[in-house]
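Sequence, please.
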C-alpha cells in the first residue's frame, strides 16, 4: 500500500500545482494529501470532470481489487 500512497501523493502534488496555475485553487482551499484509494480515484474524477471506470483504470496503478474497493466506497 505504500506504493499507492506515494503515487497518490504525487498525483495530489501535481494536481494542486495545476489548480494553482489555473487559478482554480487558493491557499485556503488546498486539499489535504490523499492517502487512500478512494481519495486517489476522487482526484482523477475531479480532474476529468466526468470519468468512466475505464479512464480511471487507465490512470490508476492500484490493483484491480483495490480499485474495485475504492469505487464501491464512492457509491
Amino acid at each position: 500500500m505504500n506504493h499507492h500512497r506515494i503515487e497518490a501523493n504525487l498525483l495530489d502534488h501535481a494536481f494542486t500545482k495545476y489548480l494553482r496555475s489555473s487559478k482554480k485553487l487558493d491557499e485556503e482551499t488546498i486539499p489535504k494529501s490523499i492517502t487512500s484509494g478512494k481519495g486517489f480515484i476522487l482526484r482523477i474524477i475531479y480532474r476529468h470532470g466526468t470519468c468512466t471506470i475505464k479512464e480511471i483504470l487507465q490512470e490508476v496503478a492500484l490493483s484491480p481489487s483495490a480499485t474495485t474497493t475504492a469505487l464501491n466506497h464512492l457509491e
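The mean pLDDT is 63.
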